[in-house]
């Protein structure tokens, strides 16, 4: 539970603003800015203060709790008497993190800067001093590449820059976005310097609002009293240093002061400022240890060495315990346990390599778990793998490098097996090539977008496509589907971009093809991740409302059950605006299903006039907030009339559907058989080994 003392107090009351008008209480609470995104409104803070149940449920220091608080308010706000404007203001702050729009940096953009020297040296360089605060490139990149951080910390004033630095030193480290070793050279001299306005260092001034130690009432008087400065210094040098892995250079000044012999100390039993300061704070020590006597001073020093150093965590940071390790020269990195397209990419690479008995270990980007090809978990690598095959994307390459660095494997030959879905590689991600030695592209479309953007090797490496056996015994009725209707099927993940997947086109084409409600057809939209994008989910549900022929299934299914659902459908429809590869239609083809798809982007590698019904398109600009790296980009706007004609045709021509299904299955087996894909991987690994 969050302690009430950790949240800035206000004297505001709780009048609700007039319906439809946003008031001062609907603005972000500025005194919580230090905690980072997501922000919450002033009204939310007042509600939290007024209700002990909310204080028990939500710790406002925790970003996940702030998110959950806003979502709870979205559900329960009306029952509390709040108007929709106040509820919308709270939810809008959550959406800021998903926006693709943000302020320009107060320094030359670093994501497109040329790379020189070693990666670590390049990241550690001070690239600017906004408002007199040194900014290492690592923190500039973090701000530029994380939209939620960029929108939360404007960095226009010195106070805002210091808030950003404070967040980086605490939550940024906990998020794995900040490597202390990379920011120490630039920040240590600045942080440990006495603040010109206060009798304390700059670091203590920055982190004092976060104090959660045992003496909050005293610390709240920082920097005005000696005891307050003492409390914050002990907490920073002990608890915070251990919690966030800070080096001594961040707190050298306070540590030296704490260890300095106190004024008027006894020459025979000298006491330092730490001992005297703790004695002044602890009434029980004052009773036990009379500092006017040698015996009392000796007792205090024994207590300090025997108990206090451990209690206040002022001993040296412990070394990580040794752990059993495994030797592997190939590490597959990605979201090994998620249900997502990128997670399936990693699993398919593992399958392709296993077909050749190639040993590997998979490193899960979320949990940090390491698993061998035999499914055996292990705690660590005995030595850094020679090759890291990273199944993540260019926009996270900087953060992925920090993650590999944290695990001690960043010096391996790193391959970015990146997915990319637009025709040009974004200029603002040029720095991503700094963190890999080469890039693999899953489709010719992705290859032609990425290769011109770098001098590093880029290879066309089609992925494996394989599916498990469908869950046996399932029937259409198990999914609420009729047996006597022709079923069109489309699936997508809300965590991707609905504007790119374009389900609205499938809905429009379906209704255009079958305007009468008694047509013997159905459209299934299988989705996951709706809770992550509730506005998109609600908009989709609204679009299909009133048409019982269209069924939305927004739930995560076990893989064999999900495959069974596709197998029970008659035709897969993908009227995407762009695809990097198109695993959904490829898997449907492998099942022998006919596919209707936009004749654009990654699907063109396998969806031809012989294997699918292709839908024409016109190129249209990508909206600024529709997709990352959208500036100057175009994508396909599929022809709804052509799509409708294709749907009408396939529903009435079973021989055509069967012929396309057979041709599509043969095409996928020819191009993406795991054994053949694995052979290409091994050939490339051998070439890398020869040049290592």
Quick structural overview:
This protein is of the alpha/beta class.
If you had to describe this structure to a student in words, what would you say it looks like?
- The structure is a single chain.
- This protein has 692 residues and is of the alpha/beta class.
- Among the domains are: 4-98, no CATH class; 259-311, no CATH class; 326-460, Rossmann fold (3-Layer(aba) Sandwich), CATH 3.40.50.11930; 476-672, Rossmann fold.
- Helix content is 41%, strand content 12%.
- It has 27 helices and 20 strands.
- The strands form five sheets. Strands 7-6-5-4-9-10-11-12 form an eight-stranded mixed beta sheet.
- Strand 14 (521-528), helix 22 (534-544) and strand 15 (550-554) form a beta-alpha-beta unit.
- The protein is elongated, with a radius of gyration of 30 Å.
- Residues 1-20 and 317-322 have low confidence and may be disordered.
Keywords:
alpha/beta, Rossmann fold, 27 helices, elongated, 692 residues, 8-stranded mixed sheet, 20 strands, disordered N terminus
- Report the CATH topology name of one domain: Rossmann fold
Sketch the major β-sheet: 8 strands, mixed
Distance between the termini: 52 Å
CATH architectural label of one domain: 3-Layer(aba) Sandwich
Mean pLDDT: 89
Strand content: 5-15%
- Calculate Rg over CA atoms: 30 Å
CATH class term of one domain:
Alpha Beta
Secondary structure category: alpha/beta
Q: Can you tell me the residue ranges where pLDDT is under 50 for at least 5 consecutive residues? A: 1-20, 317-322
Q: What level of helicity do the residues show?
A: 40-55%
CATH superfamily of one domain: Glycogen Phosphorylase B
Counting DSSP H or I runs of 4 or more residues, the number of helices is 27
